[in-house]
From TrEMBL:
Gene3D superfamilies, alphabetized: 3.30.40.230, Anticodon-binding domain, Bira Bifunctional Protein, Domain 2
Aminoacyl-transfer RNA synthetases class-II family profile domain sequence ranges: 150-386
Binding positions for ATP per the UniProt entry: R222, N223, E224, E304, V305, G348, V349, D350, R351
Assembly and oligomerization: Homodimer.
Gene designation per UniProt: glyQS
Keywords: Aminoacyl-tRNA synthetase, ATP-binding, Cytoplasm, Ligase, Nucleotide-binding, Protein biosynthesis
Residues reported to bind substrate: R102, E190, F237, E238, Q239, M240, E241, E344, T345, S346, I347, G348
Name listed for the protein in its UniProt record: Glycine--tRNA ligase
EC number(s) recorded for this UniProt protein: 6.1.1.14
Amino acid sequence: MSKNNDEIFKNVISHAKEYGFVFPSSEIYDGLSAVYDYGQLGAELKNNIKAYWWKSMVQLNENIVGIDSAIFMHPKIWKASGHVDGFNDPMIDNKDSKKRYRADQLLEDKIARYEKDGKQDKANQLQEEMDKALNDDNLARLKDLIIEHEIACPVSGTRNWTDVRQFNLMFSTQMGAMAEGSDEVYLRPETAQGIFVNFLNVQKSGRMKIPFGIAQIGKAFRNEVIARQFIMRMREFEQMELQFFVKPGTEMEWYKKWKETRLKWHLALGTNPAKYRFHDHTKLAHYANAAVDIEFEFPFGFKEVEGIHSRTDFDLKQHQEFSGKKLQFFDPEINQSYVPYVVETSIGVDRFFLATLINAYEEQDLSTEDKKDSRTVLHLHPVLAPYKAAVLPLTKKDGLPEKAREIMNRLKLDYNVTYDEKDSIGKRYRRQDAIGTPFCITVDHQSLEDNTVTIRHRDSMEQERISIADLDRIIGELVSWKNVLAGLQE
């Protein structure tokens, strides 16, 4: 990672806290590792991200419906899904620092350093050997690779490693009034299983026909032992998942379609396509016959933000076997029942939130020969911006605040808007730039005479005089969901 990228990432983290996007959880008690809270602006941005996903999935597709399943589920579900026996990460401890790391991530960091140093052959060789060890579940070989490539603990700087061991990532707790005799249940490590166990309920109550999808947004919990890269890897996180049920034999056609559809969703926000890439899995999960990640270029390299998997009929068959209930679809076209195949798309809300912040963040030098000047601006797409407009009275007197409040009260029936009368107008503009507000509406003495205001555009900083009566139309045209949703239908 170059110093420049490192500094940008640190600045984004600092900016997120300073302006109320993301706070360390329990900060007054010195925080809790790998847990974060979303502040007042972060909650707004996060809700807008979720709305964008939900509208594009459920609102635009007649054959996709949404549910909200419980976090707690019957313990046998996690046995059936393979999480009890197989939801593990290969972990290694440094004996000197007492810190625990994921063995594959230590190796991935080494590969990234080789690539940065121009040693592509070494990077390719290590990638190949690591993939083979992971595929073979060869833990001893993973340790050998760490030793052979002289990987040291980032904390102690030593290479005094334990053996690699598997570590289950599920949180367990007791359900019942008494600890004794109570059932052990798990906090769900993914939201997908809540969809699978409701397959029949949704299909029958919604009279759904194959192909159809079930979408869900919800919290998931994993006992991640590595706290790093801010909100990239957390113990409590949120997923937006679609399970799309298809006729067996058509899954690869749908897999290809969903790959294209999901990348289009990301790019519809105006992101540079070079920031995204597909990364095919070399090691497939036990349930998959095809898998790909959509990766975004973060300051610390390309990392997964979304996964698309062809899950075959594994999940429904497992739940059918463990529950004793038939989970099949009767297809009237061929006059027979079958267990559908599934194509999944799963995106991390928090990772996409971070990608959105990083992509939007810019430090601009506005200096001229006469004056030094700069600003930090978030170029958030208007549909995602926490506030759509800021209403600013030029002064706190002469009836200007009253006029500004009148405008704000009208606009807030349709949009989330903010009001600010503190500091000079220039400082207020800079504050709104820093939180990504697309418009600033300045109310001055002329406003009282002819019902016009100055509207300032965030990205260009251009200002124009318009009638108050035109505000709804001008703001609405820019912040409407139609702008991005229409593009997804083309």
